[in-house]
């Protein structure tokens, strides 16, 4: 059976729902897309880094909230070949990158020495065609992340593909420790075009910037 054919604009209203999940007060985001503001670059002041990609601002809002709450450094991953201002206009490109496991270039990779100084790296991405934005994988594979703690977070339009997206982060950081340590089993981790049963139950994820603090407490990052 083929995975449902996606009409990406269907994700638009769902994204807004995800940004206002039940345990959160409404996210400080407009219902319209927002463009992430200026690039963020790691300063090297903390042992924790929040590295994220965001096209429309939702993932950036969560990333910035993590920084506010933890004092982590922040780094926004930028694609060498930028996506359309409205990424839905680039849906075919994004699907091709996801389905063929491509590694689009990153415009602003930090030096290896800078990344080496972090113990913990939050990795944020939108869920794009049931995968992370593939530039996030390009970033992760550019470094030796052995023994670092990698904590993925996603914003998404529907929770259905969260596990597949998470699995990809774990797969490209095989020598890292992860939070959570394990994920629900994904029956088809290698072929994202073939659906498995729903398998996202139990994955803890902030639905919005406003849900981030409770999430960080639940996963033990802050008290
Ligand atoms: C091309 C495209 C594909 C998408 N595919 C998915 C998907 O497979 N699953 C999902 O839950 N959301 C999907 N979305 C919705 C995004 O994950 C959601 O809007 C996300 O919050 C955007 O994050 P950003 O604002 O940081 O860019 C897609 C969005 C776009 C533009």
Total of helices: 7
Number of strands: 6
User: What is the average of the pLDDT values?
Assistant: 82
Instruction: Give a quick account of the main beta sheet: strands, pairing sense, barrel closure.
Output: 6 strands, mixed
Which molecules are bound in this entry? Answer: flavin mononucleotide
CATH class type: Alpha Beta
Q: Strand share of the residues?
A: 5-15%
Write a brief caption for the model:
By secondary structure, the chain is an alpha/beta fold. The chain has helices spanning 11-18, 58-70, 91-99, 112-116, 134-141, 162-172, 212-218, and strands spanning 48-52, 73-76, 120-128, 131-132, 149-155, 177-178. Strand 1, helix 2 (58-70) and strand 2 form a beta-alpha-beta unit.
Describe the fold and architecture.
It comes from Bacteroides cellulosilyticus CL02T12C19. Keywords: Signal. This protein starts with 10 loop residues before the first helix and ends in a 5-residue tail after the last helix. Strands 1, 2, 3, 4, 5 and 6 form a six-stranded mixed sheet that branches. The protein has one domain (14-31, 40-218): Flavodoxin domain (Rossmann fold, 3-Layer(aba) Sandwich), CATH 3.40.50. It has helices at 11-18, 58-70, 91-99, 112-116, 134-141, 162-172, 212-218, and strands at residues 48-52, 73-76, 120-128, 131-132, 149-155, 177-178. The longest helix is centred in the first third of the chain and has 13 residues, at 58-70. The chain is of the alpha/beta class. The model is unreliable at 1-38 (pLDDT under 50). The structure holds flavin mononucleotide. The site of flavin mononucleotide has 24 residues, from α1, α2, α3 and β3.
């Amino acid at each position: 059976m083929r995975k449902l054919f996606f009409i990406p604009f269907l994700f638009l209203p769902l994204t807004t729902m995800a940004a206002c999940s039940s345990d959160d007060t409404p996210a400080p985001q407009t219902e319209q897309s927002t463009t992430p503001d200026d690039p963020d670059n790691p300063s090297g002041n903390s042992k924790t880094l929040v590295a994220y990609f965001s096209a429309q601002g939702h993932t950036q809002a969560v990333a910035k909230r993590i920084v506010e709450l933890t004092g982590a450094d922040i780094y926004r991953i930028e694609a060498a070949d930028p996506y359309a201002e409205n990424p839905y206009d680039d849906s075919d490109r994004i699907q091709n990158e996801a389905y063929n496991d491509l590694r689009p270039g990153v415009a602003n990779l930090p030096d290896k020495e800078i990344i080496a100084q972090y113990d913990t790296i939050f990795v944020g991405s939108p869920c794009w065609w049931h995968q992370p934005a593939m530039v996030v994988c390009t970033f992760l594979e550019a470094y030796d992340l052995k023994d670092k703690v990698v904590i993925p977070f996603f914003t998404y339009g529907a929770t259905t593909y969260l596990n597949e997206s998470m699995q990809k982060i774990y797969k490209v950081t095989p020598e890292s420790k992860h939070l959570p340590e394990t994920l629900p089993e994904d029956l088809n981790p290698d072929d994202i075009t073939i659906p498995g049963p729903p398998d996202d139950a139990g994955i803890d994820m902030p639905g919005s910037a406003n849900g981030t603090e409770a999430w960080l407490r639940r996963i033990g990052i802050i008290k």
